[in-house]
């Protein structure tokens, strides 16, 4: 008898910095979503594909759910919340703590009106004792209706196989939406831009990265096909930020470019000639036109 093939869409939600992108990257076995310890690392919904013997899971990594402070924040909140009723399953990532703060309460309120099954995924178990994890489970389990409560470590990969198996228990029989070799629907240009932004996030001071966008203006393979030329612009909000991003004698922008180029070459499997510039676009996070130009268009979320 032929085994049934299951498939479905699973969204990963949570406050900023709980490890959503790290978990998704681990589950599909390749880095697609960028990671950092700073808020607003993920700004768009990022779709990746896991294909195994049991079936296919399409994961949606969403921006951290937080109250919006500007139009970019409003876009990110819409991107995260709109997925909740459009998927087969929700994975809500939290940390192993008994303190359920305002951010978690906000998500709990949103989940009360959702009919989609919710897994409470307690992440970062590698950094906490078993007793602390059990206390966290006790604190959360009465706060909402969870189909499953599963502790994992996205960083170490602990218990993630069990998470995948349990996801398949809840998915319906369905088609293979993507070829088995597909791991993401993200265009290469978008991944390249995000890799540059990730390096800026990790290298720059706390207040600057929130005001950064990256636009890839040119990405073209050379005739022999062994080198790709990439021209990209790092956009910042303030005149005072530009010299910091460039650094003394260009040291900072060279380091951002060097780190990004290494990962691009692994991604594209070819040599990369990367050129970076910095431009100031004041208050772009509150400009509908600039948000759209930089890839944050609410119409794309409909």
Quickly list its features.
302 residues; alpha/beta; 6-stranded mixed beta sheet; 3-stranded mixed beta sheet; 9 helices; 22% strand
In short:
The chain is 33% helix and 22% strand.
Topology pattern, helix = H, strand = E = EHEEHEHEHEHHEEHHEH
The largest β sheet comes out as: 6 strands, mixed
Going across the major beta sheet, what is the strand order?
2-3-1-4-5-6
Helix content: 25-40%
Distance between the termini: 41 Å
Low-confidence parts: 36-43
Strand content: 15-25%
What is the number of E strands?
9
Give the structural class. alpha/beta
Note the total helix count: 9
Q: What is the mean predicted local confidence, pLDDT?
A: 84
Rg, nearest Å = 20 Å
| Dominant shape | globular
Overview of the molecule:
The chain has 302 residues and is of the alpha/beta class. Helices cover 33% and strands 22% of the residues. The protein contains 9 helices and 9 strands. It has a 6-stranded mixed sheet, sandwiched between helices. The protein has a 3-stranded mixed sheet with strand order 7-8-9. A hairpin with a 5-residue loop joins strand 7 (213-221) and strand 8. Helix 6 (188-203) runs antiparallel to helix 8 (251-268).
Summarize the SSE layout with pairings.
Blueprint: E1 6-13, H1 20-28, E2 46-51, E3 55-61, H2 71-81, E4 89-94, H3 102-112, E5 118-122, H4 130-141, E6 148-151, H5 160-170, H6 188-203, E7 213-221, E8 227-236, H7 241-246, H8 251-268, E9 271-280, H9 288-293
Parallel strand pairs: 1-3, 1-4, 4-5, 5-6, 8-9
Antiparallel strand pairs: 2-3, 7-8
Helix pairs in contact: 6-8
């Amino acid at each position: 008898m032929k085994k049934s093939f299951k498939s479905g869409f699973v969204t990963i939600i949570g406050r900023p910095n709980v490890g959503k992108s790290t978990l998704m990257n681990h589950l599909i076995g390749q880095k697609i979503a960028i990671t950092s310890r700073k808020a607003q690392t993920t700004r768009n919904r990022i779709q990746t594909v896991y294909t195994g013997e049991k079936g296919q899971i399409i994961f949606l990594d969403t921006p951290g759910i937080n109250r919006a402070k500007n139009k970019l924040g409003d876009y990110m909140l819409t991107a995260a919340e709109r997925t909740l009723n459009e998927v087969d399953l929700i994975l809500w990532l939290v940390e192993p703590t008994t303190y359920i703060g305002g951010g978690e309460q906000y998500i709990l309120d949103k989940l009360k009106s959702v009919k989609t099954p919710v897994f409470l995924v307690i992440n970062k178990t590698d950094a906490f004792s078993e007793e602390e994890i059990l206390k966290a489970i006790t604190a959360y389990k009465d706060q909402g209706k969870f189909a499953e409560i599963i502790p994992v470590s996205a960083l170490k990969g602990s218990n993630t196989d069990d998470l995948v198996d349990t996801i398949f228990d809840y998915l319906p029989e369905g088609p293979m939406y993507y070829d088995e070799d597909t791991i993401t629907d993200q265009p290469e240009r978008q991944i390249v831009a995000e890799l540059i932004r990730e390096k800026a996030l990790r290298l720059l001071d706390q207040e600057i990265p929130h005001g950064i966008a990256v636009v890839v203006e040119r990405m073209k393979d050379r005739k022999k096909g062994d080198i790709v030329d990439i021209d990209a612009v790092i956009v910042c909000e303030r005149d005072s930020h530009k010299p910091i991003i460039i650094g003394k004698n260009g040291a900072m922008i060279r380091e951002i470019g060097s780190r990004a180029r290494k990962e691009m070459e692994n991604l594209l499997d070819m040599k990369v000639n990367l050129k970076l510039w910095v431009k100031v676009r004041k208050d772009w996070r509150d400009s509908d036109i600039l948000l759209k130009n930089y890839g944050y268009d609410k119409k794309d979320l409909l």
